[in-house]
Amino acid sequence: MFTLTRPDGYLLSTDPDRLDLDRVHHWLSTDAYWALGRDRDTVGRAFAGSIGFGVYRPGDGRQVAVARVVTDRATFAWLCDVYVDRSERGRGLGTWLAGATRDHLAEMGVRRIVLATNDAHGVYGKVGFTPVDPGRWMEYDRRVTQLTGKEQDAGSPLTVEA
Questions:
Q1: pLDDT tens for residues 126-144?
Q2: Residue 77, exposed/middle/buried by CB under 10 A (0-12, 13-18, 19+)?
């Protein structure tokens, strides 16, 4: 288990028993563009198979931020589900969380960490993340499409239903 405390008292921990997954589910399923509508069971299974990083407020210890890392713990990691409670934003918690996550993974020997973001490039850039070469990276994406609300069949073209 990894813990780190900021000078102002915020605590970061990878203790899975400390994560408030009901709170995390609420954040992700209602306010995170990449996970809107994600069900509680999926959140639980995702965190069970990952390293979860929680950030806890000084004083009352309430969880105020989260990140999840999918990794082999040797060479590669995917940083995802990074969320800071709206009432705690503007305190540098997202940058601190990303940097602490990067450093903890480096201690394991992980040399490549990837992530995807639509709107937080500046946060991650402050701790050394840079855009990737789009000519090298590929994906297989079976998420529900926003246009139809249905899963895509492998190899079928995207169609818009009227």
A1: 999 999 988 888 888 887 6
A2: buried
